[in-house]
Specification:
The chain is mainly alpha-helical. The chain has helices at residues 3-13, 16-39, 43-74, 87-99.
């Protein structure tokens, strides 16, 4: 099994909602690091906040982008804990709308 297949298999087992939550928590940590430079404006703290906070923010953005891509790739076969109607309810809605025509 190649590295790409192993990575895709691991990502397919992850929850999109869990990845979005991780991205939000990571963004909050990055925001706290950036606020530290305002609360304690020492030169080293400011340098760390500008570089470290930016790296943490980029990681949060990439996690969010990855969760969007995971949701797009999965399509109708999303995780049971994902928001939105489940596949069985969408199928029932499609049948009822086809019957009403």
């Amino acid at each position: 099994m190649s590295l790409r297949e192993a990575l895709l298999r691991r990502l397919s087992q992850r929850s999109v909602t869990g990845m979005v939550r991780f991205a939000c928590w990571t963004a909050l940590v990055g925001l706290a690091v950036l606020c530290a430079s305002i609360l304690y404006p020492a030169p080293l703290v400011v340098v760390f906040a500008m570089s470290g906070g930016q790296v943490i923010g980029i990681v949060a953005f990439l996690c969010y982008l990855l969760s969007v891509l995971m949701d797009v790739v999965r399509g109708a076969e999303h995780a049971p804990d994902a928001p939105g109607p489940a596949r069985k309810f969408r199928a029932a809605d499609a049948e009822s709308s086809a019957d009403s025509r």
